[in-house]
Amino acid sequence: MARKLSQSTPLGATPLDDISGLKQDLSTREELFEAEFININKALTKYYLNLSSKEAVKYDMHFFLRVHKDMFCDVWNWAGKVRSVGFNVGVEPYKISTELKKLEEDFSYWVEKGRDAIEISALLHHRLVWIHPFSNGNGRWARLITNLYLKGELGAYLEWPEDELFIEKTFRKTYLAALKEADQGNIQPLLEIHKKILKEK
Fold first, then answer.
1. Predicted local distance difference test score (pLDDT) of residue 150
2. Separation in Å, CA 100 to CA 18, 40, 132, 172
3. Do 106 and 98 touch, CB atoms closer than 8 A?
4. Chain-centre distance of CA 112, in angstroms?
5. Buried b / exposed e across 90-117, counting CB within 10 Å, b at 16+?
6. Which of 7, 146, 180, 181 could be bridged to 125 by S-S, CB 3.0 to 4.6 A?
């Protein structure tokens, strides 16, 4: 029988129906958030300290998987491993590696063609969330990678209104609606969010 955590799932979050991959003895979502928060802060320190130039990071599939592993390796044994189960969001599991490779190529093309950095950040953010490669943590992972890109490119970052690693409820509805618009090919609402919460160093 699969282990489960107590408490309901926040709006738009991937349900944790099975926590058999959990490395720590936790029983509530609050305890899980705290454990993940500590792990993510370790990853933030690692990447922000090492990000000294645009050339310091290669945005390829290996990097995408490694960031997720570093964010959650102390908490989940599947950290950094693509999911094998289909969800009601994200691409089918067998398409994940292909879509990440496509994103790697598209990202290189956007940069090569000199697209605006904040526009690239919105496109990158959306595609990472849309692919949804992992069993959990996809939103936080996508937001971190986007911020690493912006820090390296502009010396800036997106200041997300987060509360216990989940975007504050009122803002979250706008955020999720923008992601759905991007799914339909309209990146503008997500781009406007990025512009609004962009903070200079």
1. 94
2. 25, 22, 10, 25
3. no
4. 23
5. bbeeeebeebbeebbeebeebeeeeeeb
6. 146
Which residues lie closer than 8 Å to 114 by C-beta, 6 or more apart? none
Size of the chain, expressed as the number of residues it contains: 201
Query: Which residues on adjacent β-strands are paired with residue 200?
Result: 156
Q: CB–CB of 90/132 below 8 Å?
A: yes
Q: Could you tell me which of 102, 189, 89, 103 has the C-alpha nearest to residue 146?
A: 103
* C-alpha distance from residue 92 to each of 44, 69, 102 (Å): 29, 21, 15
Q: Range with the lowest mean pLDDT among 40-54, 73-87, 148-162?
A: 40-54
What are the angstrom distances between the C-alpha of 184 and each of 88, 127, 155, 187? 16, 12, 30, 8
Predicted TM-score (pTM) of this structure: 0.87
pLDDT tens digits, residue range 10-33? 444 555 556 778 999 888 888 998
- Residue 81 or residue 15, greater confidence: 81
Which residue shows structure tokens 């999911």?
Answer: 83
- Residues contacting residue 10 through CB under 8 Å, at least 6 positions apart: 166, 169, 172
| Tokens (6 digits) for 24 | 């720590």
